[in-house]
Design brief:
The chain is α+β, with helices and mostly antiparallel strands and about 350 residues long. It is built from twelve helices and nine strands. The strands form two sheets. A seven-stranded mixed sheet has the order 1-4-5-9-8-7-6. A hairpin with a 2-residue loop joins strand 6 and strand 7. Helix 1 packs parallel to helix 4 and helix 5 packs across helix 10. The N and C termini lie far apart (about 90 Å). The structure holds phenylalanine. Phenylalanine binds next to strand 8 and strand 9.
Length: about 350
């Protein structure tokens, strides 16, 4: 047994000295000192020794154990120091290397245009409210006095999300007229910007997703004069003080009377050019006096209250403001385009 202990001592000590990492060292510890380790196995045989031999061997075994434990401890300290030194060497920082340029983005030009627009309306006492893009056809069409056979309801024009044409991607922000009154009551002055969806092919002036800004004013005694005055003031804020406007009769199911509003072409001053397609005028929005049926659909008495509503196209506004010629540039998000604003 003495020889056995001697050989364990020398084998273990050289294994400890050879351990190059903490994991290797721990494996050596388990191999010799663990529950099923070699030294432990020898100790278990102590019972077989004679009473005279037992204390001598016991003492020797304890010495071997103590020697191994202290060797493990000091080798552990050496390895920990080495690991730290390696880590520090690997993580050396060269403070003289030039830094990476952090590229800071900025607001998309269309949202810059929207911010300016919101500012104008906030200054006129309007509230800004948000609404759902997934909408009920009840709000998108029915409560807006849109007849069942109206072409806009066709599956070929509108993205429906269910079989029975109840849920859709809103085709306009006008359902927010209804939701705003239902939620806030009257009198009300609000604008509601957001995405709308139509089954249009992409070209220089069309996209299946675009943005509108709905506006609604309902109060006692609101007239067409309020509509014209408000919209003229807004348009002159956006397009410049001298901007000429033209209110053309039009039709929307939810306004009566309805109109479309054009601005005189800022490029040619009304003579006709490629920007205005030779017209001299550029259409900027649809508007009208809120239809009495729409008010009634929201529980508002049209004999007591009246109002006007309007819908701006945000892309068209941004294109005018930043002189962008193709709608696709707004959505492609090519950094070389966006960097210019
Ligand atoms: N929703 C109409 C459209 O998409 C625009 C509009 C809004 C017209 C409000 C009148 C009043 O064309």
């Amino acid at each position: 047994m003495k020889a056995q202990l001697e050989s364990i001592r020398s084998a273990a000590l050289s294994a400890i000295a050879a351990a190059g990492t903490g994991t290797e060292l721990e494996a050596v510890r388990v191999q010799y000192l663990g529950k099923k380790g070699e030294l432990t196995a020898v100790l278990k045989q102590m019972g077989k020794l004679s009473p005279e031999e037992r204390p001598i061997m016991g003492q020797m075994a304890n010495e071997v154990r103590a020697a191994l434990e202290s060797a493990i401890e000091s080798q552990g300290a050496v390895l920990a120091e080495k690991a730290l030194a390696d880590k520090l060497a690997a993580e050396t920082l060269d403070v003289t290397i030039p830094g990476k340029q952090a590229e800071i983005g900025h607001k998309h030009p269309m949202y810059t245009a929207l911010d300016g627009f919101k500012e104008i309306f906030i200054n006129m006492g309007f509230e800004i409210i948000d609404g759902p893009e997934v909408e009920e056809s009840d709000y998108n069409f029915t409560k807006l006095n849109t007849p069942d056979d109206h072409p806009a309801r066709e599956w070929s024009d509108t993205f429906y999300l269910d079989e029975d044409s109840r849920i859709l991607l809103r085709t306009q922000t006008s359902p927010m007229q209804i939701r705003a009154i239902e939620e806030h009551g009257v009198p009300i002055r609000m604008i509601s910007p957001g995405r709308v969806y139509r089954k249009d092919e992409v070209d220089a002036t069309h996209s299946p997703m675009f943005h509108q800004i709905e506006g609604l004013v309902v109060d006692k005694g609101i007239t067409m004069a309020d509509l014209k005055g408000t919209l003229n003031a807004v348009i002159r804020e956006i397009y410049g003080a001298g901007t000429q406007t033209r209110f053309r009769p039009h039709h929307f199911p939810f306004t009566e009377p309805s109109c479309e509003v054009d601005i005189q072409c800022h490029k040619c001053g009304g003579k006709g050019c490629p920007t205005c397609k030779g017209e001299g005028w550029i259409e900027v929005l649809g508007a009208g006096m809120v239809h009495p049926k729409v008010l009634r659909n929201c529980g508002v008495d049209p004999d007591e209250y009246s109002g006007f509503a309007f819908g701006f196209g945000l892309e068209r506004m941004a294109m005018g403001q930043f002189k962008i010629s193709d709608l696709r540039l707004i959505f492609e998000n090519d950094i070389r385009f966006l960097e210019q604003f």
